[in-house]
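Practice record 12: protein with pyridoxal-5'-phosphate.
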Amino acid sequence: MIYMDNAATTRPYEEALSTFEKVNRTYYFNTASIHQEGRNADKLLEASRKQILNLLDLEGFECVFTSGATESNNIAIQSVLKKKKQFGRTVLMSELEHPSVLNTVEAMKAEGFDVKYIRTTADGQVNLESLKELLDGDVVFVTVMAVNNITGAIQPVAEIADLLKDYPKVHFHVDATQAAGKIKMNFSGVDTLSLSAHKFHGLKGAGALLAKQVKSLDPVYYGGGHEFNIRSGTVNLGAIAAMAKALRISVQDMEKNHERISGYSEHLRKAVTGLPSIHLQPGGVPHIVNISFEGAQGEVIVNALGARDIMVSTTSACASKLASLNETLMAMNNKAAVVKGSIRISYSNFTTDEEADMLIEALKGVHKEIGGVLK
Ligand code: PLP
């Protein structure tokens, strides 16, 4: 099997799996217990926290462990907006956001917030001119992802942070789920960041909310006060330690993997350029390539590759079972037929040269096979 759906989730590193197992065998204690073993477990928790902050160069931030980016996004948005209500009611959000941001922000309309969308460039980036037009004294929250999960487009996070310096009451939240462990970005002007371990070869069920002023955040649900009183509940220490390990390996090997994966995506782009009815979306990180077969259904391409034992996805795993057209591709002004025929290929640190070549051959084969339906 050739796995090319790594933007949905990655295979855990062996080191992450063995850390998880070892911690659950030897440090299975509750980090909140005050006996010696509990304190030992807590030391490991604190060491993991420090390591993650160091690896991401997040000086001045705190690391709140969560179950993943969905929870981190929910906590950041709901908690901050609860506090900000008295200062303004407008939330600015890019059109590109993952449902865990989009639906949470949309739900805040019921709390009296007004949501405005920042437009997108044809390259799949947040349009800075549109952001400038929307910024006014009522804006209290801006949310923009770091790397788009559909096209890989890298968003101008540092430029946005710079713009927001003139708006001190604005909280800037960044969903960095598809960036962490893949590229180095400057997050110094950001207030909160989300990530999920399973996107960088850690385990599912662990993630983090990285926050500059964690003490000013209120809980959105209640319990024993774990994790700075923001995310109560006994922590998943094994998965957290495995996340720190996975991030360390991903960051250490980042340059060499980036170069290798860039080779794969460039090769793929060259190989399909010029084939009739094929549209390549502009990219960003080399890990994600979005290709459309105009006139076909994305599902048909996914299934044809599946028959060749290659796993890719239509748009994003969360949305791929829904019939609606992908919002990111629509926001980039693609024709409906291009959006319908789109598939997402996503490489990981485990992808081999041979797999990358086999994918290209398979795509050419599928293109030939379904030539009759293409426009
Ligand atoms: N944000 C982005 C950009 C994502 O790609 C994903 C997962 O696909 C998430 C958030 C949600 O991550 P999780 O499902 O681990 O909570």
